[in-house]
């Protein structure tokens, strides 16, 4: 629904919007009262990831009165998340009106940020949000909320230490950080990494790249480029290669037909957001497996961005079996017996969920309970990829595979794409991220309060600030023989 009326902040600039936001936060008593007992040298929460997920998680915790929080990100300031790194689409897929990480604050939405600078006319004319502009908005989001992201800090190892979690880090002032709770707000590859198929293993690294890699597209000018896959990242990288002068780009697609319908978009609602996690395993699996099997199609604009080039080709029914080097080229062999010779191969094969791939957990990664450990799907609904998702508690925390082997995992929260099989699309994608953050903050607050319950009980007993001063009333004596309301003598 387009907006036709202007607002008080329309095209008035960001200072006016920021003043409105500060007033709104003040009226709502944000940040909340700091109620968590402090421990010297210990953070209450550490968030790994200073992108969209990490920042809205910080805002939710701050709103809930949890202040002793650190946010760590290995990227340089302003380059958190995928937006200026491996994301190469021209615009976001999500509709521009979605509130995203605004956490219920109208003045914190992308729409408010855009209209404050460019006005209603430009807003109505805007189709989809340009990707670099979304990063500009997230930079403003961090600045206006004064989120203390510590950039250039990498978490190398996570270990238990008594009732705490010890983080071994590089890039910080200290080599270790102690925290009570740990949140992985690490995005799409936050519980795994890029999907590197086995058929690429014998090809020298200079002949291929994954779509998540830093790719020198200028070096592809005049080259024959093979792109494996046809998802969003595949077509975005194909478009980049074409726009940098590739001689030809050929999409090599295992499927016999192009996926055209985003099934998840058809059921998106607050009901799905709130109700998915409460469904029995068979229904949760069924929803996600069907989404995986039908595959989310690439965005319309991204696909047209490729197909408008006469030297772009889409080949279906081409399941890659192996790729071998031939001179300075890569020969891609298919299950149908044919082959294609390329100068460079780009894997548009997405990401895998595999806790074992996260080096931060070390050997403990093998102790994390997975869906394949607890659920056997019926015939026709099998999915090896889905089976590798962590089987989480309903508060985003990991579960241990065998009771007693790694009980500290219930202090670690999976607030990234890895949570989607257990809890739904509330911890990585723009539509449900604020609802997920609210859910997360309540869960963290509940466990912190329970752990400190004796301290809070003592504080209640020790509280001695009088509500009444003693001069608000005058005591009187009840005279003997005074009549009651019923006329009887007392």
Layout of helices and strands:
Elements: H1 14-27, E1 43-48, H2 52-63, E2 69-73, H3 110-125, H4 131-145, E3 149-151, E4 154-161, E5 164-170, E6 176-184, E7 192-194, E8 208-210, E9 224-228, H5 232-243, E10 248-253, H6 270-275, H7 281-294, H8 300-307, E11 312-316, E12 320-326, E13 329-334, E14 339-342, E15 344-347, E16 351-353, H9 371-374, H10 384-387, E17 412-414, H11 420-423, H12 433-451, H13 453-462
Parallel strand pairs: 1-2, 1-6, 2-3, 6-17, 8-15, 9-10, 9-15, 10-11
Antiparallel strand pairs: 4-5, 5-6, 7-16, 12-13, 13-14
Question: Whole-Å distance between the termini?
Answer: 73 Å
If you average the pLDDT, what whole number results?
94
> What is the oligomeric state here?
single chain
Sheet bearing the most strands, described? 7 strands, mixed
Structural class: alpha/beta
Helix content: 25-40%
Order of helices and strands: HEHEHHEEEEEEEHEHHHEEEEEEHHEHHH
Q: What is the CA-based Rg, rounded?
A: 27 Å
Shape: globular
Question: What is the count of helical runs?
Answer: 13
Give the beta-strand count.
Answer: 17
């Amino acid at each position: 629904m387009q907006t036709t009326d202007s607002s008080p902040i329309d095209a008035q600039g960001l200072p006016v919007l920021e003043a409105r936001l500060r007033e709104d936060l003040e009226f709502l008593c944000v940040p909340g009262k700091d109620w968590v007992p402090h421990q010297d040298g210990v953070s209450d929460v550490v968030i790994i990831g200073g992108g969209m997920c990490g920042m809205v998680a910080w805002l939710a915790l701050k709103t809930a009165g949890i202040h002793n929080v650190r946010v760590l990100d290995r990227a340089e300031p302003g380059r958190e998340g995928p937006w200026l790194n491996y994301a190469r689409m021209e615009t976001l897929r999500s509709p521009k009106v979605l509130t995203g990480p605004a956490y219920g604050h109208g003045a914190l939405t992308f729409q408010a940020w855009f209209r404050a600078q460019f006005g209603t006319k430009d807003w109505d004319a805007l189709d989809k949000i340009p990707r670099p502009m979304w990063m500009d908005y997230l930079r403003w989001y961090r600045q206006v909320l004064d989120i203390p992201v510590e950039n250039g800090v990498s978490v190398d190892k996570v270990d238990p230490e008594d009732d705490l979690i010890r983080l071994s880090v590089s890039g910080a002032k200290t080599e270790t950080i102690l925290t009570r709770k740990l949140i992985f707000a690490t995005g799409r590859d936050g519980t795994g990494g890029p999907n590197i198929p086995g058929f690429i293993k014998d090809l020298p690294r200079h002949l291929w790249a994954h779509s998540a890699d830093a790719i020198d597209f200028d070096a592809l000018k005049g080259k024959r480029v093979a792109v494996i896959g046809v998802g969003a990242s595949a077509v975005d990288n194909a478009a980049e290669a074409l726009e940098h002068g590739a001689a030809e780009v050929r999409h090599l697609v295992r499927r016999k037909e192009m996926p055209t319908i985003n099934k998840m978009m058809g059921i998106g609602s607050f009901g799905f957001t709130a109700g998915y996690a409460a469904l029995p395993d068979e229904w949760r699996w069924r929803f996600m497996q069907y989404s995986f099997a039908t595959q989310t199609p690439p965005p319309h604009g991204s696909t047209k961005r490729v197909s408008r080039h006469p030297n772009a080709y889409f080949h279906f029914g081409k399941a890659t079996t192996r790729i071998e080097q031939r001179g300075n080229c890569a020969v891609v062999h298919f299950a149908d017996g044919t082959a294609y010779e390329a100068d460079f191969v780009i894997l548009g094969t997405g990401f895998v969920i595999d806790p074992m791939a996260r080096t931060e957990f070390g050997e403990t990664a093998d102790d994390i309970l997975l869906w394949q450990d607890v659920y056997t799907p019926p015939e026709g609904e099998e999915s090896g990829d889905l089976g590798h998702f962590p089987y989480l508690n309903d508060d985003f925390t990991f579960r241990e595979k065998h009771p007693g082997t790694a009980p500290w995992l219930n202090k670690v929260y999976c607030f990234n794409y890895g949570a989607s099989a257990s809890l739904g699309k509330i911890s990585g994608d723009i539509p449900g991220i604020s609802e997920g953050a609210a859910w997360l903050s309540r869960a963290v607050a509940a466990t912190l309060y329970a752990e400190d319950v004796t301290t809070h009980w003592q504080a209640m007993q020790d509280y001695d600030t009088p509500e009444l001063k003693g001069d608000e009333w005058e005591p009187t004596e009840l005279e003997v023989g005074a009549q009651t309301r019923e006329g009887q003598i007392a």
